[in-house]
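so my prof wants the structure for this chain in the tokens format not the other one, which i didnt know existed until like an hour ago. anyway here's the sequence
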Amino acid sequence: MPKNLTLTDMALRSISQPQTSCSAFAALLKPFFNIFLVSLLILTIFRLSLLLAFGPWESLSGHTSDLLRAFGLGIRFDAKLLSILYFPLIIPLWVSAFWGRNGAPSWLKGVYRWWGFAVMLLLLVVGIVDIFYFQFFKSHIDILAFNILYDSNGEVLHSLWSDFPVVWVAVGLVASIVGLVLLTRLLVRRSCPLCRHTTVLTRALVMLVLTVLLGFLARGTLLDRPLGPSHTVVSQEPFINQLPMNAPLSLQYAYKHYTASIATPTVENQLRNGGFSTLEEAVATYLRHPTDSENPLCALIDTTGYNPLLDTLPPHVVVLQMESLGEYYMGFNRGNFNLLGALADELTHLIHFPNFFSCMNNTPATLEGMLFGSPFHHLGVSTQYAKPLPYSAPWTYKRKNYETWYITGQRLGWRNLDLYLAAGKGFDHIEGDNALREFDPQAHVGEWGVHDASLFKRIWSVLQASPSPKFIYGMSISHHTPYDAAALEPYADSLQIPDSVTRIYKTDPSLARRSFLAFRYAANQLGLFLRELRQSPLGQRTIVAITGDHTLRQILNVGDDPLANYAVPLLLYIPEQYMPKYKVDTTTFSSQNDIFPTLYHLSLSQAKYLHVGCNLLDSIPGHRPPAAVYTNTFAMNRHAFAQWTTDYYATRNTLTGRLHHDTDPTPAELALGAWGRSYMAVMGCFIARELENANEVEGWLK
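here's what i got, hopefully its the right format
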């Protein structure tokens, strides 16, 4: 070596000359790409499986380009996930690009192997769970998945065991783990021959490009917002819009929503979640008129009109939250496929609203939404459960001298119901499965508690006990997996399921049959109760409202129509002396937040109440609900559909009910979405204020 060679010259020469001792870089780079690409393939296979298993092929014809876009976008979501999960593995690559002359040590290759194994196992397990979750709920893993955390009695786990092939899935999973062990060993075995003779500069450039590429893929887009759920809309067909998202990212977003739902709500975070700058803006959007800027929440306090009949002869009020009573099942009432039983004969005596949506998508959240106007999913099992809610429906009736009851066949320890409902929610009496067993020693008991026949017997007994006005909230359980109420239905031998129904099965035929029979049992018991009530003197002074807690999406593939998937019936029994004297518009699009405002106007004179919704029976059309709102997801009326969580806006064909996706939403669609967001934000703000200072909020009643 020349003596006059400087250190700088030596460094430049080392960079420019090939390095034959860079085997560590070569030994790690190819395995990195191998495990990345195989992981990408696993996620793509799950996406394809979702399409093949649940795709509504009749409605997908003509949407080939949309499917290709969905799969292309799905690869971007997959790359986003994998770039994050595998990003730590580029650190050894950076080190080996400058140092690693003796090859990669075996322990480092082991890190790559077992890291890849762990990631692939995660993809496999979450992907399998997501497939079965999609089969039941027709969506990827969402916030509902975390309900199992509060299943204190194990009923959900028992339902999973009885309804899904858990053993075969476990066997397949074990076999897959063995396969992954062998696969990852193969993927990290060989190095990249092209990388064995490269300069330091070349390796540094390769790593720089790789690092920047992974960072870009992790963000997913060059737009203002990173790639997320709002980017998944690529088609007019809602099912296609489910394809881009993968299971692990769905789980991550669900957990994010879950943690937000159990955090202590504040006015500020509810406004922020709804996209509103001020409380005045949110309340004005919800009420559709300007409000007092000093205390906008006071504008939510309404008062029913004066009615002397209600002062002298207040009616009993019964609200029945029926398990999985979906509107779609209400049409199964023909020949030997009659799922309504005695309820079919009672429909002529009821007002039936078919374009009606549940306020939430699971049983306890629906209960909270109806009784308290709560937009939250888990208030009953949060740290806020013991705080009073003075504007609850039971308190509204209790202030008018009603005796208030909550009756269910469910175990009261489930979801903390016993403590939650007893803590300042306005109920005088709370009865669950133990009380029903004591009341009816012959009660039939199933996986979830006492079946519905005993529930209706108990409600009838309470109504007969004294003439003082009673408010009763009853919750049924019988149409719930594992559908053990099917064994109680004598119609089982006569049930004949038509081909038009079996063709759209998405579950085991025996499970579908049990579901139909359990539905028939619950509907028949409801019909028998209504018949006995209607034919008795009590029927002249008892108002009954019946609705489902949510639909059942586990059994049938009903396509993407929101009504078929999410609509529940509202059935009203109103004695003649309390019946409005004008024609009722039953085609109104509405939801369960409108039930109690309707009942207040039917049953209470000059009563103050929280404006959680509108009076469905109001004689002025402008005072009726402007739309239905379904959870914190979408709003819908006759003409439009707005899903603000994914920026999906559509025009609705009033003749066919089909939705036509609008890439550029109309002002009416944007206004519909804003109204839906405002409902969730305003109710969240009101509940937050109640939880913060119930005494102050109760003072607004005076």
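also thought this was worth mentioning. The chain has two domains: 9-240, 304-631.
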